[in-house]
Amino acid sequence: MAVILNLETATTNCSVSISKGYETISLKENNAMDYSHSEQLHVYIKEALEEASLSFSDLDAVAISKGPGSYTGLRIGVSSAKGLCFSLGLPLISVPTLQGMAHQVKLEKGELAIPVLDARRMEVYSCVYDEKFEEVRETRAEIITESSFADFVSDRRVFVIGSGAQKCKEIIQHPNFYFDGEIVPSAKQMGPIAYQKYQAGQFEDVAYFEPYYLKDFVLQTKKKS
C-alpha cells in the first residue's frame, strides 16, 4: 500500500500526517493563532516520519491541502510539497481543504456536511457534501444570510462545521442545522482521500500546480493618519 506524506496548512492548524493505504500511522499538528507554519512545518514532517519509523525514501507520494484558506498558509504548504516532490521524484496529490473537513463528521444516509471557513466580515468559503463525502454543491465564497443553505435543509440534519460556523449560527435559525465551530482542517483526514487519488493516478503537474485561493489575494494596508 502507498505511503503518503500529507500536509495541511490552509488555516491556523499546521498539520502533518503519514498515511499507509487508508490508515493514518502518524500525526503531528498544532493549531496556533499566530500561524507557526513557516517555523514548524518541516519540524513536524521530520517528527511524523520518525514516529512512523520511516524515511523520505519510503514515501510514494506527497499530498497537499489545496484550499481555499489562508493565502500565506497555502503558499507555505504548496511550496514545501512541491520542493519535496521535485527533490524526491514523487507525485503530487491535491486534496480539497473543505472535503477533508467534511470527513470529520459521521453522517447518516441523507445527511449533509457543510464545511465553512471564515472569511472577511459575514463571508465564508463553503461547500456541500453528502454522506459519501461527494460534492453536492461546488465551493463558493458567499455572504451569509438567513436563507443561506436553505435549499439543502428540510427533514434532514445538516452539519455546518468550521471556523465560519459561529457567524452562520447567529443568522441561520432552521432547527435542522447543527453547528460546530471547533472543527479545523487536519492532515489526519487527508490520507484516505489522497490514497484514492493515488490509486486512480490523479496527480498534479508539480511545475504548474497552484493553491486554490478562490478569491484574489488582497494586501491590507493601514490608512495614513
Report on this model:
The protein is an alpha/beta fold. The protein has helices at residues 37-51, 71-88, 97-102, 165-169, 190-200, and strands at residues 3-8, 13-20, 23-31, 61-65, 92-95, 112-118, 123-129, 135-143, 158-161, 177-180. A 5-stranded mixed β-sheet has the order 3-2-1-4-5, with helices on both faces. It has a 5-stranded mixed β-sheet with strand order 8-7-6-9-10. A hairpin with a 5-residue loop joins strand 7 (123-129) and strand 8. Helix 1 (37-51) crosses helix 2. Residues 217-225 have low confidence and may be disordered.
Measure the end-to-end span. 60 Å
The secondary-structure element order is: EEEHEHEHEEEEHEH
Helix content: 10-25%
* CATH H-level superfamily of the largest domain: ATPase, nucleotide binding domain
Short description:
The protein is α/β, with parallel strands linked by helices. It has five helices and ten strands.
Annotate the secondary structure layout.
Blueprint: E1 3-8, E2 13-20, E3 23-31, H1 37-51, E4 61-65, H2 71-88, E5 92-95, H3 97-102, E6 112-118, E7 123-129, E8 135-143, E9 158-161, H4 165-169, E10 177-180, H5 190-200
Parallel strand pairs: 1-4, 4-5, 6-9, 9-10
Antiparallel strand pairs: 1-2, 2-3, 6-7, 7-8
Helix pairs in contact: 1-2
